[in-house]
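Write out a record, focusing on structure:
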Amino acid sequence: MTGIVSTPAFLTDDGIPLFTVLTLPSDGSVRGAALICPPLGKEHNHTARGFKRLAEKLAAERIATLRFNYAGTGESSGSQTDPDAVDHWDTSITRCMNYLNDLGFPSPAVVAHRSGALLATNNSRVRTTSRALALWDPVDRGRVFVRTQQMLYAAISEGPEDVAVEPEHLTQLAGLSLHKQAARTLSRLTIDPESVVEVHNSNILALVRDDDLDGSLATAVENAGGTVKPIGDQAPFIDAIDPWFTDYPAEMPGVARWLSARFGTGTTTISPVATTSAVVGNTTDGRPVQTRLCTTDDGVIIWDTAILGNHESADRVLVSHSIGHDIGSGPTRFYTEMAFDVAARGGRMVRFDRRGVGESGQTAPEDTFTGLFTTPYVRDGLQILDEVDLSHAKVVAHVGVCAGSWMSAHAAIETASRLPGARSVAVVVNPNRWDLRPARPVPHLSRSTPAWHTPAWHAKVEHQRQRVIARCARDLIEVSARVRPRLARTALSRVRGFQMPDVFIDTIRRRGATVRLVFGPGDHDRFTRLDGYRSLARRRINVAVASSQTGDHSGYHTGIRDAMRRSCLEALGLTDASVVEADQPVHSPVR
């Protein structure tokens, strides 16, 4: 049986480098090609693994499938705050269509999801040359998308409203910072049903929510002979609440079958050449900053950013560890932009998608559940130290948010053990576990149990069960705050479930690494309730603590991201002074 191969690369044909992944059968024999236009912002973070799975299903049907990040989003170059961001997104779609044309596919099919459907249906190449169009849960008005994502950003924000000061020229969405001009441009976009069906006729699939079955888009598609299908609850797919659980929606196999039927039986063989490095910007003195792509033997994807030619010699290295199912670019693309900040100051940053997350490895049904804080979780996270040469480093800092901060602590300890001559730092951001010991994995409920009538029902029940377990653990942590004597805290910390910040930090220090703490408002309050400051003082432990008056737990808010950025640069001993010219946005094209 022919295998499936996904190849990450940069598209550097015309303009700024775009991150792409091409998925096809290993023998290169395909019946046609498809382009997946992903959603924007926080929804892209949550759905990336799902669309990798769709790409693999299409490749199994011998359809070469290209996925990409729009300019200024994810791992693509460009600034997310560019006033012309929407135009750059449109150009990104056109460039990907051109790439598939150059491979020999003049009329690719297009799958467009949520806000991606809004962008795709406004792209002239998609409207006029795509052979088939699948609109999945389409957002038909940009104004609605902007407003709902602004509301979500506000909903996840913490801290008093009177101190929440955002840059006046920006509009903050969940997972996306837009220039106000770009936000206005996006708000004006709509899906015109008549123009959508004008060319595609019956070769259009609309997957819509029940409330939209009688809407203008669904009606136009049906009248043109296309296919309209209702969809189930999409929340676990587009807005995963918990870091350990995501979802592969039930509609995915049907989308793959529908697209497969749009192609004939004849095949052609392609052998694309991948560009695995790109210059993503320049320092103020003109030195190019380069990101290299690396795929390990077992499929883990690594992004490695430094000044061109300095990857192996840079002596200050930052390694990021994402939360659970979150992809390597981080919340609101923080890690991607942090990589340029570090590299432009002479350092190096390494990002990766851990096994079973984002682009790493082939997808599997069990990807939907991640066993956080377990021994396998630590092992997978530490794998990055086996794959990247850090022998020249004088300072290695590991940063993570939430569950990623727990992993960053383990990675800092391991780095101290492997590189005794280097300074190892854990930048611990909004930790939700103050116990370094891996948890005993919670047994999963068997799918063979007769009560589970469908995989979807099983997944929902498993999800709720894990949330109850996590809630009980959090409640037990609060009990820890009532214990004051140092010896009692140390003794109680040996009991699983009781977690003490002072014992956690002291353990890291005793094993050769240093710690920097970063908190948003809610997590800072929790640290204080856990007697964090006083317990550290009783142990005479001095730890750098940065807190933001505004922020959120997962790191999407500008307040917590600014605090993270300063702490990472300070951990590496790099200046916080600007390295970007006033007229040069972060991740600008080469000039």
Confidence is low (pLDDT under 50) at residues 447-453, 581-591. DSSP finds 19 helices and 21 strands in the chain.
